[in-house]
Fold:
Amino acid sequence: MNATAGIQTAWKKMGFNCGLEIHHQIMTEKKLFCHCPAGKYSDTWHAEVMRHMRPTLSELGEYDGTALMEFKTRKEIIYRLNRESVCTYEMDDTPPFLINQKAIDIALTIALAFKCKIVGELHILRKQYLDGSIPTGFQRTAIVGVDGEFPLSNGKIVNVIQLGLEEDSCREISDNGHRIVFMADRLSMPLIEVVTENTLETPEEAQEAAMQISRMLRATQMVRRGSGAGREDVNVSIKGTTRVEIKGVPAIARIAALTDYEAHRQQALLGLREEMLKRGFKAGDRPGRVIELSLDEIRPNHPDLAAAKQVRDSVRAIVFPNAKDLIIWPLHGRTFADDLSGQIRVVACLDQLPNLLHTDGPNGGLDEYDLRIIESETNLKNDEVAVIVWGSEEDTNTAANELLDRFAQAIVAVPNETRQALKNNRNDFERVLPGPDRMYPDTDSPPSEITDERVKAASKNVPIAPWVREKIYREQQLPDDVVDLLPITRYAPLHDKLVDNNTITPMRSGEVLARMMTALERREYAVDQLSIEQLEDLLNALGAGHIHREGLFDLLKAWTSTPSLTFVEMLERLEWTEIQEYQITTIIQEAIEIANGEAPRLPENLFRMAMGHAMDVLRGRVDSRIVLDKMKQLIG
Structure:
């Protein structure tokens, strides 16, 4: 068995399962349900609005668990509004406009790219969010297509459950204590959501699947680029657990490491559960007691406890029976105490870390003196562990209840929850995982019919899949970096056309359209200002030998600043006119004279210096190999 097969077998034994929810903003001028411009970001605001969120009953008369959790946080939510990118719709003071039809057409094209079956009628639903990121308390969303697919490099077919069209949320600016601040410029920008089945069996498969989706989206040329335009949610479970969502993964390249960590964290939590059951804990138990610590006559050594006593904050001890070594149970590089800390950081808003101390082992943050204080005030028994929290009366009360609930959950199973990715590829609690009660129809938005004619029109914009082009480009013996870049650019159809017509070699076309254009884009030259027709003229001339590779990069740089010029006009501006052989010889002779006048210290430097002077004049007009040969003849 080779190493790869062994790794796959290990993940299969663990029962690793993963699914993806890939969100990406699409390229429209307007937002999804109003006429405000999309993609207009600014840190300037002209007004602030404050809101408090409250949960509402679903159509079945039930509350969503996530909404109830968010309500416990008692957040004061501030929205900063820029009048150029926000209207009364975003603040829920006006009903939605009719849905952006351009956004529907783009979503149809993307759904067809993934071979989805298209719905006959688009229905808008409301998806409840009480984290403050959407002022209405819900996101408007719609299913465009279902039952799609795409391949992985190992031949596996990944099923796409659905492709949706929905509005984006606000940008978070800060979140401190009970106050969270958002910028509303991103709010209601159209985005698509690609949801896969939970059939990805290794972290590497999960990462590759996300990359395949991302490459297809980019190949359509209908999605936005840049920071924040795309976000990935990753659902992970192993044998014996249910879904845990890692929310807002900031980079596809981190998915393998993040899912690896989460799978091992869940495995460790199953071990914790097994240990708790061995100790006699039972499902349904809520063991533990809460004790208010007075600390009236004693000054603790720990600075946070001393500060809490000074400002008369509440200090509570949550005492868990038979819990020695459970609070410090290792969770693949973190501990159960870290999970507890994350829960009260979010729900009780105790976000100044450390936000808890404990008596389980030497790393709980308490010295011998403080330990004796805690043991005395809680009457702690040998097998008991105390967890200490401090803050306002309400916050410590919320924290105590959350700790009791989380300890009780550990007896039963790995909880369904949404977790946020950390910089070290670990994760922390974000919120309870939403349930089906969060979705209900939007009575403010009429359905949109999806006609056969509309689907047919959208199908004309579906690109050749990147993985199909990659195979073709490898057969053309293009370098790996070109194979990787070219299929997801707007230049791929031009490359295919020119190569099919034998106008230019695949290598030369790929070098220009993939390497040069990407390098210019990364240096922030406006390459998108150059039309495909302009680039076709350039590559035709390059293939015919009328211009040459040397100097082409400089030509393109100059052309991006004057894109109104035709190719011929650009050559005239650069003085890349046709040149006779006798002129080439004269220019090379002059270059040699200049180099001699510079008195090179070493004879071999004369050739290099003369070549540089000659190419300054001849670059792009004459093949450098011709200049090189003639230079050798003249210098001798």
